[in-house]
Amino acid sequence: FDEVFGTPHAPSPAPSAPAGGGGADVQTRTRTRPFVITAPDDRWRVVGKPEIKVDAIKLALGKPAFTDDIELRGMLHAKILHSPVAHARIKRIDVSKARALPGVHAVLTYKDIPRVVYSTAGQSDPIPGPLDMFSLDEKVRHVGDRVAFVAAETPEIAEEALRLIEVEYEPLPAILDPRDALRDDAPIIHDEPEYVPFEGSDPQRNIAAAIRIDIGNVDEGFAEADFVFEEEYVVPKVQQASIEPHVVVTWWDEDDRLVIRTSTQVPFHVRRILAPVLGLPPKRIRVIKPRIGGGFGGKQEVLIEDVAAHLTIATGRPVRLEYTREEEFIAARSRHPMRVRMKTGVMRDGTIVANEMYLLSDTGAYGCHALTVAGNTGHKAMALYPGKWREHPDGYKYANIRFYADIVYTNTPPSGAYRGYGVPQGFLPLEVHMQRIAHALGLDPIEFRLKNALKAGDEHPFSRAWSEGREPRPEIINTCGLRECVEVGTRMIDWHAKYGNPDWHTVPGKPYLRRGIGLALVMQGTAIPYLDMGAASIKMNDDGSFNLLVGATDLGTGSDTVLAQMAAEVLGCPVEDILVYSSDTDFTPFDKGAYASSTTYISGYAVVKAAEHAARQIKRVAARLINRMGEPEITPDDIELRDRAAWAPDGRHVSLADIALNALHHEDQHQIMGIASYVSPESPPPFAAQFAEVTVDTETGVVHVDRLLMVVDAGRIVNPATASGQVEGGMTQALGYAVCEEMTYDAQGVPRERSFGDYHIFTADEMPVLEVAFVETFEPSHPFGVKAVAEIPMDGVAPAVVNAIHDAVGIW
Questions:
Q1: Which of 113, 384, 398, 698 has its Cβ near the most Cβ atoms within 10 Å?
Q2: Would the pTM count as exceeding 0.90?
Q3: Cis peptide before 318, with omega less than 30 degrees from 0?
Q4: Is 696 left (phi over 0), alpha (psi -120 to 50) or beta?
Q5: Which residues pair with residue 704 across a beta bridge?
Q6: Residue range 267-286: mean pLDDT, rounded
Q7: In what helix (H) or strand (E) does residue 535 lie, and over which residues does it extend?
Q8: Which fold, 76-172+243-294+299-331?
């Protein structure tokens, strides 16, 4: 440990920021080592420190913060009638009894709402997927699909009204297995004439999207290979399981504008997507995002906002709608289940010369996120191991990679965005496949991986072939701390003393128990290049504090805190002097939303630019005030902002409060304010090494995961406390994906899991030991050297656990 980290309580001096991936510093935070080992950057006073979250006290005290923490006069309660059948047309629907029930103010069916086709995917314009959804339709496509909306004085009256609605269904054949969706005689799930396809969509064949990517000459690569390995893998459908369900409150304000207060990751997309659905111009819609009790991609969806809005339009009253836990399982979104076929060509020395992945992805009843999730599966996972590089006549290097995907409709609840966004589905097959190859050829599994892995200076293998929503352009990997992550991780978990050691694999006195250790190497992305945009404005107050307005959405991740730290660093004040306001479409600047691990990198860059804009104005005022104190005369460029003051090189200084007071009330009166936006041309990938230890009961098959360790290169870490929390939380979700979570359906398409009693997520007392370490590189495309950290913890746990199980018992 000390060989890698140095003496824990005597950190080494900070190295200069490297241009590439070398010279890694290390920070750690583990459950058993709750201190931080770091090599601090002397230039920074706030960035890199474990600052307390800006909303911590408010949340701890239970202050009103969430969507549901609001009471409006005359508020009605909404409920949705869900389909009990997987595929059917509505032959007859009679709502007369429900409308006659005292306390009911509206009952809406497909006959009452304009038929506007849209996508629920909260993505940029144009939405990279088919338009295949209606607020209400005469056809239902899964158990849990919408049939009618009700608004009543109480939730109980609304529930009673649902029971009074009479519906006669014409059952249609259902598709429950994605392999059946492509049959020639398969029923067509989307036969509506309004369907708007996107690239690869073919609703007549139940294909929501399709991808065909050939890089290099894969067939030649397989012909060159000494060995070719093929295998098929299956990854399950799982739910985000946010503690706060989807909840929305809508009302008309005093200016006759529709206000939508909602638990969403994408407030600006909600406004844009709903405007045509509701028949309102965007200027008459205001979307407010309060605190969110977990999103994980499940709230990157325009899911229930239209329901409450339609009912407010119909009644003129405020309307509240909250999903039950059962509705989260039958009517929300989940991770795409996939069948993945891997084929890899390898030379005797372990060099990969061709790599191929084909996946069949189940998008469920609607194609929200169908194309982009599957695209990420290949783009992120298959890029990690280019293997043998070849020279292209145009002067760049390429690898032999093939990635094909068919994303098909079935009559099950829709899949959508889930933290990791397709990448966990890719790394389970890829990393288990790599382990199988190394095992079959007798190669060291770590050196085999590193021999073929991406390195700093390489071109991203997919960058000329595919990009999410924009024209692909070449991207160079500036920083890669993957080898350092492996070196740190193997020492922390004592890999070389355990892997291949028969004594460690046994449990004394319990011959039926076997221990195993496994690993996986992973990479992710940081935002979507040329597409994701963030913006910020910063206003100075007359006490020297600042209002920071950002469109970015804090999902509980601590992004408000991280953005405040960046602003405070530039402006020379503590975090407590930055008052953060986020995500109100009326008052905060535009932001694409909280997804694709973009907030710290994209929105953070916008905050830095806005803070620098304000800082230049502060320095101009400060220079004027300091020059009155006597010689020598200074310029604004001579001034440094720190400790709530502007400092001249000779020690003369003036406080930020005095600067604000002077600018606002005395000379040359003006508002000191900065505003900026940012779109990145790059998506620098974070890298990580994931390790797992398991104990397997060979008599019962029970797998107990004992320990998880993840070592992450996420660039510079702005806040070690929140960053390590992100990694620990991600490993927790990924562990459920690995061993105990799955959404399943009976032969009629009825969901079996409808509550946390049926759907097994880990409780606190069941958790293994979690350990986190950060290998810091400095990403040159960001002023503070950051990369993403939010999604990569999802990617490596499942394959590391699977590989550990094989190490324990010798069975895949």
A1: 384
A2: yes
A3: no
A4: beta
A5: 695
A6: 97
A7: strand 533-540
A8: Aldehyde Oxidoreductase; domain 3 (3.90.1170)
